[in-house]
Amino acid sequence: MPNPSPARALLDRAERHVKPIARWGINHGLPRVVLRVAARRGDLQGRLAVEATTGTDLTGLFDDMRSRGPIVTSKIGYLTARHTAVKEILTSDAFRTIRFLPGAGLLGKLTTWSASDLLHPVQPPSLLVSEPPEHTRYRKLVTRVFTVRAVERLRDRTQEIADELLDRLDLSKPVDLIEAYCGLLPVTVISEILGVPPEERATMLALGSAAAPSLDLGLSWRVFRDVESTLAAFDSWLTKHLDTLRANPGDNLLSELIAAREDGVGLTERELKATAGLVLAAGFETTVNLLGNGIALLARHSSQLQNLREDPGLWGNTVDEVLRYDSPILLTGRMCRRDTEICGVPIPRDTVVSTVLAGANRDPEIFDNPAAFDVTRPNARDHVSFGAGRHYCLGASLARMEGEIGLRAIFDRFPDLRALPGARRRTTRVLRGFENLPIALK
Fold first, then answer.
1. 172-217: per-residue pLDDT in tens?
2. What stretch or stretches form a coiled coil here (predicted)?
């Protein structure tokens, strides 16, 4: 076979090296600079983007946002931390999920040239960003498999997994519960949902953890390269896994999804991969954060643990209070389709609004004494951590079930566990939780 021409070799090199640099510059490098400059000037959008990665308490920032009205205009966009406004935006057909399409100028041409065909949780056909009519067909097929009844079938197995993990903990020394429990419980459940054999679950855990920053904007070059490498590795692994399940279907939800049909039409290969990737990225990572955040909160609030001992029926409500008080997801964005109003504030067409879910969950107009962690809170379930409207989290029932079992199991087994110094929050912006959580079990 003849060697490629020098010109062809140069183009191939551009494909391999220049395109990723262009993608990073457009999608992360430039926004990173803009957000940091805005933060230094006190812009609320910029401050939120920067401070969210530091692990600091954002309560004061949320209060500041709400004090400025239902919709805050910043130098780089609109945002809201008001519960009523967030719900209205997420349920209104005047808004769609953010999907930036390249324009006709130089930047648009560069975006088109450098685009990657990697599956990404915030790129179509992911359910996170699909819109009707594709979203309607897509979600209908997926919902037929991920039903509440299907999740309840996993309840006993989830309890078994939690018990097995707790049996293995070393009581003689401090334990990092993120590594030894909070990560392993959901990855084992997700692996069984996806039909992943036990010997490949360590790969799933590593891929899920490495892909967590993929939801963020303004990644560093190093993190961006790691994320793209992880997404490519996951795509390669998933191709082989889907082929295996087609040849040998198992008793798992992914095998059912492969076979699901609506009017004789099923999901395409890319849609199947997008669904599996979303289950891993959203279902796994958010549940890790829910468990870690919940353990940390209950370890600090002995009075709330006493409420649970006196009334174990409160464990389900406790999960919703954890989701409200320390939301595993900070925010989500929407693009305005047409000129509209939200809570009396005009929103122009083609503008982006950041709905700060964690801020809405602390809105005193909805929640009495929102700064208090209260497992008896009567309206804890009114939080918006699962979103709202047509993009309401498909895995909400699974997350609630895993959270209830995971939290109750560890405190039933180790009622005197203590949080130790050294806990560290994650540096991701959208996903909020602990990087490590050292605990003394006795």
1. 899 999 999 999 999 898 888 888 888 888 887 787 777 788 888 8
2. none
